[in-house]
Amino acid sequence: MAPLSILRKVYLDTVRLIRITGEFIHGFHFFGYLPSVISVFGSARIGPPHPGLAIAREFGERAGNAGFTVLTGGGASFMQAANEGAKKTKARRKRRRCR
């Protein structure tokens, strides 16, 4: 490798490391004040007749009743069903999409 390409690689690796560190810090600040969190992620492509949606809704409701914050990916299907279940209990809910 030429010296300039080595410097470019070191520079890009440093930028990547700083970005990843920033994402960790953001995550710790976002989740730091939430006492107990359960996250629910799943496919957003499964339609209403699927029996798993009722299970996800019940799971969200039970988690909310147990005092957990329900964190979902913000998508449809299982994530939405778990969020709706937690909503019934007035539990704290968070919906976060990945960047």
Report the portion of residues in β strands.
5-15%
Number of strands: 3
Number of domains: 2
Mean pLDDT: 84
Largest sheet: 3 strands, parallel
Shape: elongated
Short synopsis of the structure:
This protein is mostly helical.
Q: How would you describe the overall organization of this protein?
A:
The structure is a single chain. With 99 residues, the chain is mainly alpha-helical. The protein folds into two domains: 1-33; 34-99, Rossmann fold (3-Layer(aba) Sandwich), CATH 3.40.50.450. 55% of the residues lie in helices and 11% in strands. The chain is built from three helices and three strands. It has a three-stranded parallel beta sheet, covered by helices on one side. Helix 2 (52-65) runs parallel beside helix 3 (78-88). The radius of gyration is 19 Å and the shape is elongated. The two termini are 33 Å apart. The model has no long low-confidence stretch (mean pLDDT 84).
Describe the secondary-structure layout.
Layout: H1 3-31, E1 37-40, H2 52-65, E2 69-72, H3 78-88, E3 93-95
Parallel strand pairs: 1-2, 2-3
Question: Main attributes?
Answer:
mainly alpha, Rossmann fold, three-stranded parallel sheet, elongated
